[in-house]
Specification:
The radius of gyration is 27 Å and the shape is globular. It has 473 residues and is of the alpha/beta class. It is 53% helix and 10% strand. The protein folds into four domains: 3-99, 2-Layer Sandwich (GMP Synthetase, Chain A, domain 3); 134-298, 3-Layer(aba) Sandwich (Rossmann fold); 304-377, Helicase, Ruva Protein, domain 3; 382-472, Orthogonal Bundle (Chromosomal Replication Initiator Protein Dnaa, Chain: A). It binds adenosine-5'-diphosphate and magnesium ion. The site of adenosine-5'-diphosphate has 17 residues, from α6 and α13.
């Protein structure tokens, strides 16, 4: 028996012993942080394959199924993983990832992998499995569970069309939008729907990262033929997060060939990215232009109404917890970053209430979500201040930024400078620059002047209060 095996069979030491009140272990929390920073896909592909063994003398012991996975994680995620562990326990100094011995007792798993079509009584997603065993389609991500609003209606309609029509109407469909706005959800929904309607179709869903990983392994094992067959032999190919293959030239090349072959064969391709094709940096011009040939649909940040709709739909799907409407409204107003965070916030409040066995209240919500709420506090920009103040005083923006000195214009300008100082963290020189290239002493003067005037001029004082409220929303 090797040292390592002996070691492994002993009781696991370290972090997992100290569970918090929500029954979470530090390893779980490290995994959550990872997901939050790198996304579910990267998590499933990489960290989800690790086993956690414990901490020994400042070294976190992890196991990986293959050398390749181990090296990849070490190179790409090692430092961040260490940071996450360090945040749990400041004694942590290093990470060690070893290869898991075949047939060894399983380590503490970091997740349960949801595999589509693994049991006989479920509709099989064999196409998906053949292409990518790890890319589990989330059964929760369907069209039914997707809430439609102004910001995502085009993307939704396009996805729906692709899932429901038998011929190719636009190819590729390129969905883009910020993180956590539902791109992956829509892709999985397409896959489920296509498999439901036409089970014989071969559907492939893969993250661009995984695509790259497989391609590189194929190169290493000199098996690019099989790789090509696998991806080119499908009816519908979906590649998630293509921004990931920017600057990875040989993967891009292969991706492009696959992509061209499929399109030439009239196979549907769906692609997502966190930005539009033209904003993708480090991806070749000819690829970008071809990506834009079909339909490009962007998902905008959510508005209040959509956020509330999503919260309502999520809270209804948990029938044994009652979430008061004012709490839903509060969350929709305050958690504006993205849907993933919004969901996370709601789940946290529901989990907490269940755990302590008390009904959900506003006070509890504020308490449980302190950190999130602070992180979502709106940051006011100089631009917004200038626009709002100009509008408030019925001036054109260009007038306010001009060199004219008449009181009618100078006072609002000073007010705007004052608000920039109060509501943003910009420096005086920076504020001066943004006001038609003025000197920082001018800004300083304006700030003092308004401060003074407010003491005697109640109208001005009120204007400032009103404007502040407008700007801080
Ligand atoms: P992206 O891939 O754009 O980063 P995801 O598809 O992973 O985002 O979405 C993040 C989370 O938010 C998922 O749990 C998803 O179900 C949820 N979500 C996003 N948009 C919606 C929506 N319009 N309706 C319901 N759930 C949504
Ligand atoms: Mg995604």
């Amino acid at each position: 028996m090797s040292d390592w095996e002996e070691d492994r069979m002993g009781p696991t030491k370290g972090l997992e012993a100290d569970m918090d009140m929500q029954g979470e272990t530090p390893w779980n929390r490290v995994c959550s942080k990872f997901k939050k920073e790198f996304g579910q896909q990267a998590y499933t592909t990489w960290i989800g394959q690790l086993g956690y063994r414990g901490v020994d003398g400042g070294t976190v012991e992890l196991t990986a199924p293959t050398k390749f996975v181990r090296d990849w994680i070490q190179r790409n995620y090692g430092p961040r993983l260490k940071d996450f562990f360090y945040a749990e326990d400041s004694r942590v100094k290093s990470l060690s990832i070893r290869l898991a011995a075949k047939g060894a007792t399983p380590a503490i798993p970091s997740q349960t992998v949801v595999r589509a079509g693994k049991t006989d009584d479920q509709p099989s997603l064999s196409g998906v499995e053949n292409v990518d065993e790890q890319a589990a389609l989330d059964p929760k991500y369907t069209f039914e569970s997707f809430v439609v609003g102004k910001s995502n209606e085009l993307a939704y309609a396009a996805a729906k069309r692709i899932a429901e029509s038998d011929d190719v109407s636009f190819n590729p469909l390129f969905l883009h939008g910020g993180v956590g706005l539902g791109k992956t959800h829509l892709m999985h929904a397409i896959a489920w729907e296509v498999k439901r309607r036409t089970p014989e179709k071969r559907v492939a869903y893969v993250s661009a990262e995984k695509f790259m990983f497989e391609f590189i392994s194929a190169l290493r094992f000199k098996d690019t033929h099989a790789f090509k067959q696998k991806f080119r032999n499908v009816n519908l190919l979906m590649v998630d997060d293509v921004q990931f293959i920017a600057n990875k030239n040989s993967t891009q090349e292969e991706f492009f060939h696959t992509f061209n072959t499929l399109i030439d064969n009239r196979c549907q391709v769906v692609i997502t990215a966190d930005r539009s094709p033209t904003d993708l940096e480090g991806i070749e011009e000819r690829i970008i232009s071809r990506l834009g040939w079909g339909l490009v649909a962007d998902i905008h940040p959510t508005d209040y109404e959509l956020r509330l709709g999503i919260l309502q739909s999520k809270s209804e799907s948990a029938p044994n917890v009652d979430v008061p409407v004012d709490v839903l409204e509060f969350l929709a107003r305050r958690i504006i970053s993205n849907v993933r965070e919004l969901e996370g916030a709601l789940n946290r409040v529901m989990a907490y209430a269940t755990l302590v066995g008390r009904p959900i209240t506003m006070d509890m919500t504020r308490d449980v979500l302190q950190d999130l709420i602070r992180a979502n506090d709106r940051k006011v920009t100089i631009d917004e201040i200038q626009r709002t103040v100009a509008e408030y005083y019925n001036l054109r923006l260009s007038e306010m930024l001009s060199q004219r000195r008449s009181r009618m214009i100078a006072r609002p300008r000073q007010t705007a400078m004052y608000l920039c100082k109060q509501l943003t963290s910009r420096s005086l020189p920076e504020i001066g620059r943004r006001f038609g290239g003025r000197d920082h002493t001018t800004v300083m003067h304006a700030v003092r002047k308004i401060d003074d005037l407010c003491k005697s001029d109640s109208q001005l004082d009120e204007d400032i209060t009103r404007l502040t409220r407008l700007l801080e929303g």
